[in-house]
Amino acid sequence: SQQGEEDPQALSIQEGENATMNCSYKTSINNLQWYRQNSGRGLVHLILIRSNEREKHSGRLRVTLDTSKKSSSLLITASRAADTASYFCATDGLQGAQKLVFGQGTRLTINP
Amino acid sequence: NAGVMQNPRHLVRRRGQEARLRCSPMKGHSHVYWYRQLPEEGLKFMVYLQKENIIDESGMPKERFSAEFPKEGPSILRIQQVVRGDSAAYFCASRPRVVAGADTQYFGPGTRLTVL
């Protein structure tokens, strides 16, 4: 079964720096999504990239997708303290409209 | 437009008791998913339901767990005879009917179950 795996597991940077998180998966997908989770809270949808897309932007977020390598990256530019959270990638299989498979997440800490 | 609602937000049960978790999807959403998150881990799919139908329950434990999404009212995840290993955060997500571009699942705040 497909599985998203993020790296690094934890990332700590200074405010204002850029943060890059990576995600790998095992099987073909319909789309890949990134979510943010603040400690003890629910998930917030950040961005969705479809399998026929290579790059997508939303504000300070930039997501890339390389289906040949089965990998994706999430870049947060000009990080802020409020970006401190766990970030998860989730894949939606070819059957579509079905269950999301989540990675273990990257815990991002932005130091002021 | 209210988001996905879950209640209770926190639930404490003793071993052997029953836990009932409720999820009200976003207005207009007829697809509901339940996920479980253990501490320091990602979410794991449990079950996918549409109104009055279970579509995919491949992630549900074979015993003690059941889910429903009746024609009227919220979706319910029921755990009978809870054990300490059931302690986790349970998240519900919803999305609209299957149409192009409606792939995003919107998550509720979760129910944190603690089994003593």
SSE topology string of chain A: EEEEEEEEEEE
The low-confidence runs of chain B, each spanning 5 or more residues with pLDDT under 50, are none
Main sheet: strands, sense, barrel of chain A: 6 strands, mixed
Q: How do the helices and strands follow one another from N- to C-terminus of chain B?
A: EEEEEEEEEEE
What is the tally of beta strands of chain B? 11
Q: What's the alpha carbon Rg of chain B, rounded to whole Å?
A: 14 Å
Largest sheet of chain B: 7 strands, mixed
Average pLDDT number of chain A: 90
> So how many helices of chain A?
0
Structural class of chain B: mainly beta
Number of strands of chain A: 11
Helix content of chain B: under 10%
Report on this model:
- The complex is a heterodimer of chains A (112) and B (116).
- Chain A is mainly beta and 112 residues long.
- Helices cover 0% and strands 58% of the residues of chain A.
- In chain A, the strands form two sheets. In chain A, strands 2, 4, 5, 9, 10 and 11 form a six-stranded mixed β-sheet that branches. Chain A has a five-stranded antiparallel β-sheet with strand order 1-3-8-7-6, with no helix packed on it.
- Chain A is globular, with a radius of gyration of 13 Å.
- The N and C termini of chain A lie far apart (40 Å).
- Chain B has 116 residues and is mainly β.
- Chain B is built from no helices and eleven strands.
- Chain B has strands spanning 5-7, 10-13, 19-24, 31-37, 43-50, 53-56, 65-68, 75-79, 88-95, 106-107, 111-115.
- In chain B, strands 2, 4, 5, 6, 9, 10 and 11 form a seven-stranded mixed β-sheet that branches.
- In chain B, strand 7 and strand 8 (75-79) form a beta hairpin.
- Chain B is globular, with a radius of gyration of 14 Å.
- Chain B starts with a strand and ends with a strand.
- The interface between A and B is medium-sized, with 25 and 26 residues.
